[in-house]
Specification:
mainly alpha, 79 residues, elongated, 4 helices
Length: 79
């Protein structure tokens, strides 16, 4: 179960096109994730600093999830 949760978290960071094409982040900001937020900040609001900060947060989050995923898989392989 832990592996599935971590893999789904990594895939959540990659979901962008579905949100852009179907709802454009709406209604309001109900369909916004970190990837779509980076797009809006960088290309629509011209806030490059905010988009860069969001990108750094996304990279840190992906690395944390990857570290836990590697540890979980390694622990399951040892047993």
């Amino acid at each position: 179960i832990a592996v599935v949760v971590m893999i789904e978290t990594i895939f959540l960071l990659a979901i962008f096109a579905e949100i852009l094409v179907t709802t454009s982040g709406g209604p309001g900001t109900a369909t916004t994730n970190l990837t779509y937020l980076i797009y809006v900040r960088a290309l629509l609001e011209w806030d490059v600093g905010g988009a860069s900060a969001g990108g750094v947060v996304a990279i840190i989050l992906a690395n944390i999830v990857a570290i836990f995923l590697i540890r979980t898989v390694a622990r399951n392989l040892d047993t």
